Amino acid sequence: MRKTFILAMTAAAVTTAAAVGAHGAAGTGQRYSITTRHGVVEVIPYSNDIFRIVESNADGSLPPEVIPTGKPAEAFTNSWTDGNRFVVESPTTRVVVDRNTGKISFFRADGEPLIAEATRADRDGDEQTIAFLTPEGDNFYGAGEKGHSMTLNGSDLTLWNRANYGYGEGDKRLDQANINMPYIVSDNGFALLFDDYAKARLTMGSDTIRYRTISSKPLAYYFINGDGTLAGATENFTALAGRQPLPPLWTLGYITSKYGYHNQKEAYGAIDSLKRRGYPVDGMVLDLYWYGVETDMGRLAWDDAQWPDHRKLLDDMNAMGIHVIPIHQPYINKIGALDNHKLLESKGLLTKDADGNTKDVTTWVGEAGMFDIANPDTRQWMWQRLKPLTAEGFSGWWGDLGEPEVHPVEIVHANGETAEEYHNYYGNEWSKTIYDGLRKDFPAMRPMLMMRGGTTGLQQYAVFPWTSDVARSWEGLQAQNKLMLSSGLSGLGYMSNDVGGFAVDKEHPYDPELYVRWIQAGTFTPVMRTHAQFKPEPYHYPKQESIIKKFIATRYQWLPYNYTLAYENATKGYPLMRQVNFHGDNEDGRYASISDEYLWGDNVLVAPVITRGARSRKVDFPAGEWIDWNNPRRIYRGGTSAVVAAPLATLPLFVKAGSFIPLAMQKMDNTAGYDPSRLTVKYFPAKEWSEYVLFDDDRTSPTSIDDNEYQLTTFSGSRQGSEIYVDISSKGSYRGMPAVRSITLEVVGTARQKAVEIDGEAVKAAANPDQGAAAYRYDAASRTLSVTFPYSYRKTEIRIQ
């Protein structure tokens, strides 16, 4: 049974921004000020589901937000008093303030208790602390990038961004990784976000959840109601903290990267090798050698000796549909970038100590200055340096070491905050600087930023983070799902990893089996980018080439499905990789801690093989009926487990009955070859009516959603006795949309048809249908009926007997 929160019944004075005991609807921006014996508590509805809690200043004013949030939605709230209780209620949420103790409890509108304060926010020396009673039976997630455990229960977390070189599964460092957030979300469908980014400690005790921060700012927090699911909480959290814009389509293809391509010849050679071997490729990431050598960090200029004609390189790459992303860092080395260091120091743009003197740092490549990104003038200087480089043909920027990796506590930033106060937010400010510059000066571009440091809200700056310098080992592969899933539940829907493993063990640098399994897993992750110190590209594994090419090709075939996941992320904040219990399937808690399998969207269950030598693995199936993608004759019932075969060439993959899976089956050299006029849709019929919505736009405009320049196509279907029905309808349009689409509907797992009708007209069988004509064919071996027809966006009804 869940905890019941006892509220003492003593009297206290109450005032609100409206009226004492006010009833009725309160509009956007309503503020309830409740005087308690321990101060004035402010309850501020941001929407029906989101409430900011803070104590007002002595003069009655509100402390400002620490982390910028989205605009509050319209909230409809009532309030009343009941003895010593002051109650604020929306259609979904009830907030109860005990005027005697000042403590606050949160309930669903039906009265179900969710969480309650154990102690009010209080200052003890240099720290502020607030505590909550731990709800019984809840499993907690989030807090940013966490890899020590799938759930946070029982964890004692230091929220201070830190790089962990060469890590793997079981590494104790993984409770404190590159991106930390003061945010927790319960599988009972609610969340807490502390309005803070300073160094903090979050203790998830068995009885008490305690948050302690060194911040000198008044400690506020947000309660977020998610209507009982992780999905609902994630949607409301990202409405508050910000959502990622639609990605460039090319980021959903294959990207090659290495530490590093030393010169122009090597870069051409890598692309030539990929293309000659028949691999599609959309991107190339340039590590530090584009600007020279390691000690040239901070030059922010091409090295002409190593790259004698970089403009031609960029022109050639762009002509081939390959997008180039270069690295840069927060540091200005005092050897190779000494001129920049002197210039920046003279302008006061580097970090300083408390006495106002430049405070240099010691990085892995020597002494360096550090950009004081808290200084607006520093941000302006940085962008003015990156802008002309971008104009030469870059498609985005990689910001490395952005925790920041080295950040001495003696630093006091230009905004007055110490290193410990500002550290976690450094990556947000850095990302925003580049994102705002790209949007202003390159308005037709969809930004792509690779960043590995930051905190709450980082995703709104088009950041594609990655899990840093993972070991090339089976333990390294095993650690990835937890890191990506926890990040996704913290708003970072595009968290990915160095496919193949970055940090190479010199004793065991080459493991083809590991590489194949990592490629398979990477096919169904938000960004498929190989990166390593040694042999990261797939052409180094010729004996496994047929398997590797199959999965990279699969990545491109799934573009329509994956791009729709991107739309869901942009409009709902849903991550692409989802916890198995994301939509609430966790009645007995059995799925709470599962991390070796995950949902890809709502319709696909991915169970990668992450153990050396394994040729089978156990799979736990959540609610529903699950069809084996590799052998549709195998069907598994939700709530069961099974050991499934997984030879080296196979990734265990399952589709929920009733699903529609849109695919692009044409061969592509890169995503520029994607043809939206041709679509294959696999349908796995179920008795219950099911629905799937496909998103499409021009795939280039950064404002297509805001401009309503997109189309949504709904597929719905059901198996009713001996008949199968499929309905298709569309709404919306965009410039350049195909006048007609050729759709091939593949109905999987069905008996040979007696008749096929489209809008009441009989369809004929044909092995190779004429262009523009409707036809069907049946494959007995796979028990798949394929119906090809022209679709001109009018409602279409298909009936199969």
Structure commentary:
There is one protein chain. β1 and β2 form a beta hairpin. By secondary structure, this protein is an alpha+beta fold. The protein is globular. The chain starts with 31 loop residues before the first strand and ends with a strand. The strands form nine sheets. The chain has a nine-stranded antiparallel β-sheet, with no helix packed on it. Strands 1-2-3-16-13-12-10 form a seven-stranded antiparallel β-sheet. The chain contains twelve helices and 48 strands. α5 packs across α7 and α10 runs parallel beside α11. The N terminus is likely disordered. Helices cover 17% and strands 30% of the residues.
The helicity comes to: 10-25%
Radius of gyration: 27 Å
Would you report the number of β strands? 48
Strand order of the largest sheet: 4-5-6-7-8-9-15-14-11
User: Biggest sheet: strands, sense, closure?
Assistant: 9 strands, antiparallel
- Beta-strand proportion: 25-35%
Return the average pLDDT rounded to an integer: 94
Q: How far is it from the N-terminal to the C-terminal residue, by CA?
A: 50 Å
Overall 3D shape: globular
Low-confidence stretches: 1-28
Protein structure class: alpha+beta
Please count the helical segments. 12
Write a short abstract of this structure:
The chain has 12 helices and 48 strands.
